[in-house]
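S1.2 Input.
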Amino acid sequence: MRVLQLKEYQPLFQDEAAYREFQRRLVESLSEDEEQMLFCGEQMVGALMTPKAISSTMKQRILGRFASQPDLMDEMRKRIEANDLVD
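S1.3 Output.
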């Protein structure tokens, strides 16, 4: 996963105040909803998620994977039990 740093795009703004206002509005929009789709005109180019939404999505994906592949849990248990560092 690549991390997008807004600071890299700061030179595209007219001045520091415009950049700070963009940051404020972006953070404010995320605080209103946990997930946002990002469009450039008519094209969806990405999505933004709060840490809470990312955590929830990851948990759902992990649980879904274990549910669809029950042998994964058994494999994890065997590996943990075989590790001398784990009591």
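S1.4 Remarks. Helices lie at 16-32, 51-68, 71-82.
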